[in-house]
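Why should sequence recovery work at all? Because a backbone constrains its sequence more than one might expect. Tight turns favour small or flexible residues, buried strands favour hydrophobic ones, and helices have their own preferences. The token representation captures these environments compactly. In the example below, the structure is given first.
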């Protein structure tokens, strides 16, 4: 088989066979097919697309290119959750303890972040002593004992996807829905879950900016999961403003703990209950979504979910006092108010700009070598629909220095204030099964 013939076939809009897709992935992984030929194929896929069968076969080939995680020794039905990413998205820290509190095992492999804040691992390391470098045997033991554990992701999950993503990034082929869907799902399937719940973000702070694009991506991923034998549900949720009020590593842990202790941060609570209920239902713990929702809501209010969080932190070496008293979490010495220039109602917030400002403060990484500053971040004081007076703070920057004009200006410009009140954005647009 010649790669040039496969490129020509896809360029003409024809379906590739299972054998041809396996040939591409195997050859690119072992370096027998060069970048320039795979680049040509990616561009052909970008313009011609892929069928549901092709996308599922591509995903499985990427799974098979490296290690897969065997979770069979963990008791119960394992349900994984994945978010396509957003600003202030600390849902995992609420959902993990919440779903575990009703007996669903949550075995989460997570990575570090490259962007406006750290990843799940970076944020958890805001808690002094928290250890993610656990052996497979220890990981399994922790989940079986506590129903919840988080470990650093192995370096060899879906290596073909890592190579393809790097190439897509420099060949203007990132925003191809079959390639995005295959990339996300290959890692989820390699991680060993029995079922998957996807949180697909849409809006200014999301990868997919429009609801139409987000629905297409969600449907594609649900189809892949179904075709590869995983029950998959996608929730399409809003990212036209940051989720909750806190952005940053320790900031987000602090706010997640507040919700676990029963505080009604409406968007965080509502989205956590939505996604958590689907996870519990897929795990077979409840007979209906409504029953799952009612029980999970009760466990946020009665302290059960918070107790699981404390047990989870202690089991992985973390300082539980930082969870019991979140004032002990890392902070920053300087607080800079970002004030409104006019009185009126907040009509929009550019979530992407808020995220970029957080990275400028040091909450995220511009490069893999950048060092995370756990205590810096942004606290929003106003969200869409809120009234603000001229001179009143829209947000507060938590910074290591008093000179943060670039970040301050980004946050100020991210807010639009008008004379007419507007409703808060819809939080959950659709659920695709």
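From this structural description, the recovered sequence reads:
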């Amino acid at each position: 088989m010649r790669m040039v013939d496969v490129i020509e076939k896809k360029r003409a809009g024809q379906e590739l066979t299972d054998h041809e897709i396996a040939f591409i992935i195997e050859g690119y992984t072992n370096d027998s097919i060069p970048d320039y030929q795979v680049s040509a194929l990616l561009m052909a896929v970008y313009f011609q697309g892929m069928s549901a069968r092709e996308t599922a076969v591509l995903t499985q080939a990427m799974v098979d290119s490296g290690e897969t995680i065997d979770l069979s020794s963990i008791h119960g039905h394992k349900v994984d959750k994945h978010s396509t990413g957003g600003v202030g998205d600390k849902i995992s820290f609420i959902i993990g303890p919440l779903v575990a509190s009703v007996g669903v095992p949550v075995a989460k492999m997570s990575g570090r972040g490259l962007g406006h804040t750290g990843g799940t691992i970076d944020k958890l390391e805001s808690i002094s002593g928290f250890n993610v470098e656990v052996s497979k045997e220890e990981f399994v033991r922790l989940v079986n004992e506590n129903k919840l554990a988080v470990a650093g992701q192995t370096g060899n999950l879906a290596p073909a996807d890592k190579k393809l993503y790097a190439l897509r990034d420099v060949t203007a082929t990132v925003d191809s829905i079959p390639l995005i869907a295959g990339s996300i799902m290959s890692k989820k399937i390699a991680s060993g879950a029995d079922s998957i719940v996807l949180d697909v973000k849409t809006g200014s702070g999301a990868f997919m900016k429009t609801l139409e694009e987000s629905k297409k991506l969600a449907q594609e991923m649900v189809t892949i999961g179904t075709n590869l034998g995983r029950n998959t549900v996608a929730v399409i949720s809003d990212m036209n403003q940051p989720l909750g009020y806190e952005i940053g590593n320790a900031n987000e842990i602090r706010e997640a703990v507040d919700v676990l202790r029963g505080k009604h941060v409406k968007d965080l609570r509502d989205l956590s209950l939505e996604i958590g209920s689907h996870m519990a239902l897929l795990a077979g713990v409840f007979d209906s979504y409504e029953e799952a929702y009612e029980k999970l809501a009760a466990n946020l209010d009665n302290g059960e979910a918070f107790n699981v969080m404390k047990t989870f932190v202690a089991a992985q070496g973390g300082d539980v006092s930082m969870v019991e008293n979140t004032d002990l979490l890392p902070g920053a010495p300087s607080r800079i108010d970002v004030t409104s220039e006019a009185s009126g109602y907040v009509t929009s917030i550019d979530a992407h700009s808020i995220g970029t400002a957080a990275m400028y403060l040091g909450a995220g990484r511009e490069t893999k070598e950048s060092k995370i500053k756990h205590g810096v971040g942004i606290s929003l004081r106003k969200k869409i629909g809120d009234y603000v007076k001229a001179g009143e703070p829209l947000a507060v920057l938590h910074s290591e220095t008093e000179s943060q004009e670039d970040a301050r200006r980004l946050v100020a410009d991210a807010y639009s204030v008008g004379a007419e009140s507007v409703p808060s954005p819809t939080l959950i647009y659709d659920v695709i099964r």
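A few observations help interpret the result. Residues 97 and 309 are 5 Å apart (CA to CA).
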